[in-house]
């Protein structure tokens, strides 16, 4: 894949607006000035990438909490640094022993990704030693809410994830538990929490009819037990890095993970993708290194450098401007084939987190990533107009006290106005 290189773009605000720009401003400004928007912080930026003209700008250089719009930067990083297939693990064979260290690949025994490349590879060897300490990361990201430890969207980060680092449980003629190692650790009662904070003891209401994912509390002993259970053989854990030249085993197509991350807004995949990207820069897995590399080497011309602390946007420490979101979206638009790029984003009224919002007339006109935290909702991506134009936008809303559905309804009316008039 062609590497994405930031060549920058100039945001031109025309002194004499075109008639279509004037129509957009005439229709959008009153909505943003309405009572609905007056008591929270809103930023909106729209760019015509062909003309490199600013179509609309409102607080576009101000910093916002982006929530899962942060995944756009994770996607950009992954597209630049990762190959077409995921680097699943690094290894070396020495004296009949397979020495293995993780790259952060989230697909190993993942409940939905269903890739068996690494599993089949490991089954070929009788003696396996895993090095799990090649990562310089806390299990949770900076600023994550401590009380979220029990919820699926807050799975722990690790160098060698197993089963997506979650327990999966559902009711079907008895409790179905994966990994099965925890069959006796799931208590079938209706309880206020899903897992004890400091141990792998779980609670599941057997009257539920959905599938529940509960984060595991990880340590090296647990990972070893899970690996032994999956491989049906003993494995060892070593504190020593792999000696000699390491080979890389590649697994599933990278786009498969990008699509799931973007469509489902999967925090675990986003975090692990940043860890994976760091594996291409250093033997030590560290997401600070990869974020600094991206900002210092690939995005040197950002007008408002972000405060970027995690891969998922789960942290409220993240701060991005609408202009900085559009900047990266524009770079991807320039360097990634249109069909492939749009396939990575939810489509309005059709797929992912946009399935129930921004429907087309009849075809989708919005391809974008949403981002939501309590009292915050953002969306950034691509908007197709009826005149055949492709626009790039970022619309950020922070600190509202009304239902997010009300904010989305007004956003939808603005998007439709731009679609129909520009």
From TrEMBL:
GO terms for molecular function: serine-type carboxypeptidase activity. InterPro entries: Beta-lactam/transpept-like, Peptidase_S13. GO terms for biological process: peptidoglycan metabolic process; proteolysis. SUPFAM superfamilies: beta-lactamase/transpeptidase-like. It comes from the Bacteria. Keywords: Carboxypeptidase, Hydrolase, Protease. PROSITE patterns: PROKAR_LIPOPROTEIN (PS51257). Belongs to the peptidase S13 family. This is D-alanyl-D-alanine carboxypeptidase. It comes from Ulvibacterium marinum.
């Amino acid at each position: 894949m062609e590497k994405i290189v930031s060549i920058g773009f100039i945001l031109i605000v025309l002194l004499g607006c075109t008639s279509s720009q004037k129509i957009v401003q005439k229709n959008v400004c009153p909505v943003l000035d309405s009572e609905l928007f007056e008591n929270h912080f809103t930023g909106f930026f729209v760019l015509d990438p062909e003309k490199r003209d600013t179509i609309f700008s409102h607080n576009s250089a101000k910093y916002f909490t982006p929530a899962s719009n942060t995944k756009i930067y994770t996607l950009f990083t992954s597209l630049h640094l990762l190959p077409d297939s995921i680097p699943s693990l690094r290894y070396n064979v020495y004296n009949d022993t397979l020495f293995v260290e993780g790259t952060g690949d989230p697909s190993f025994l993942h409940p939905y990704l269903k890739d068996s490349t690494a599993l089949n590879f490991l089954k070929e060897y009788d003696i396996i030693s895993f090095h799990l300490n090649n990562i310089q990361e806390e299990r949770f990201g900076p600023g994550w809410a401590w009380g979220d430890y029990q919820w699926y969207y807050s799975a722990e980060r690790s160098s060698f994830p197993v089963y997506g680092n979650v327990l999966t449980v559902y009711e079907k003629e008895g409790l179905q538990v994966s990994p099965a190692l925890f069959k006796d650790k799931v208590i079938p009662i209706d309880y206020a929490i899903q897992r004890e904070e400091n141990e792998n003891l779980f609670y599941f209401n057997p009257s539920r009819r959905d599938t529940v994912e509960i984060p595991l509390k990880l340590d090296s002993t647990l990972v070893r037990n899970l690996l032994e259970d999956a491989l049906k053989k003993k494995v060892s854990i070593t504190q020593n890095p792999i000696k000699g030249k390491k080979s890389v085993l590649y697994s599933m197509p990278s786009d498969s993970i990008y699509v799931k991350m973007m469509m489902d807004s999967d925090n675990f995949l986003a975090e692990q993708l940043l860890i994976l990207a760091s594996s291409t820069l250093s033997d030590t897995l560290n997401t600070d290194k990869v974020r600094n590399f991206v900002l210092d080497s690939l995005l040197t011309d950002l007008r408002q450098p972000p405060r970027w602390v995690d891969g998922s946007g789960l942290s409220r420490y993240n701060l991005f401007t609408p202009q900085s979101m559009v900047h990266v979206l524009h770079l991807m638009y320039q360097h990634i084939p249109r069909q492939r790029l749009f396939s990575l984003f939810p489509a309005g009224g059709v797929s992912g987190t946009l399935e129930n919002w921004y429907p087309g007339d009849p075809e989708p006109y919005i391809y974008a990533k949403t981002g939501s935290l309590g009292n915050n909702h953002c969306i950034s991506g691509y908007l197709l107009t009826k005149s055949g134009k492709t626009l790039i936008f970022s619309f950020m809303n922070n600190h509202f006290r009304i239902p997010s559905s009300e904010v989305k309804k007004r956003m939808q009316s603005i998007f439709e106005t731009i679609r129909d008039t520009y």
